[in-house]
Write a structure and sequence with these properties.
alpha+beta; five-stranded antiparallel beta sheet; 10 helices
Length: 389
Amino acid sequence: MRSIRPLLVATGLVAALALTATACGPSEDKAADKPAAESAGGNGTGGGISADLAETLKKHGVDPEKWKNGEWKNWDKDTWLREAKDFVNPVIDGLWKPERMKSAKDPAKTMAASDFSGDQGVTDPEPAPVKAEPEDLPYHEHAAPVGKVFFDSPEGSMVCSGTVVKDPKNPGRSNLVWTAGHCVHAGSKGGWYRNIVFVPAYNDKGKSAAALENARPEEIAPYGAFWADWVTTSGEWIADGGPTGGEGAPYDYSVLHVKPESGTKSLEETVGNALPVNFDAPEISQISAMGAWGYPAAAPYDGLIMHKCIDRPGRLSISPSTPTMYRIGCTMTGGSSGGGWFSEGSGGKLALVSNTSIGPATAGWLAGPHLGRGAQEIFTMMSDKFAGR
């Protein structure tokens, strides 16, 4: 029986993404949806813990200093913070070292095919597989806004993909990253993941695992690491999301606000660019091509190389009561979860229109949520919260 899982060509589309990447090298500065939305935050900066964070931890019976010194590894249900207001992500200096990043696993899980079979709702025929192609090197010249999201879960260190997106309230100085909800929160049976960081243009020169053994830090993380200090995801994902996506899959999106582990420049200034988000994409039948970018980590991939797939999108209905998802043929596997889906809008400008959410264990296709009113609400909430900062 086939199973599906969260996944924790058109030449013009590829060229459009390349144009969004910075033309210069990495910065030297290291200094129709339900309108439910959930936000979380409070992490402090540097190696310290803010007063708000300390208060949140104490409320849950956790000593702030113990948390910083390893208590975050305790995933007991009584200490696994779940509600939006309870998210904490204090910076732990030196935690995400290159070797720890390389050992992070994809968050892929499986689901019975019967949950997605049949001519349900507006589901189109399953697309033919599209072979994922490696992105051109170096990444900072071709797809600088794309990177990897690292986090810790009860199963260990995990990895997803993400995209730097523009912030309307901070033009040219965005600190926002788009990814999947299941890359930050376990859904209905769990809580917030921990130690969430974003590394844009990870492994910039596409080196093999052996070559990375002697790589310089800037080759592995050319722009450094950016810690999430605030997170939003949909209320539907928190309520209905699960290890196999479930009815939360059509709402499986998240926005991170990040701060550099060191330095003061914004993420967009550091990377050199960011992509706009389109919450008003046309009908699927009017979209000639969508491209998905990410770092697949499950076999036969190893999570070190950025890949892309481009295909004409179809429709996938999870339930008659939830929005229809986009679906494209693609052989990327787990680890590509959260990676941005891009489409050309008016004037040939590229915009993020979805993110990788689920796909089959056989790795023949990917599905992502339609970004409508609910997604726009959490994005606007984040932009407003950090306006002018």
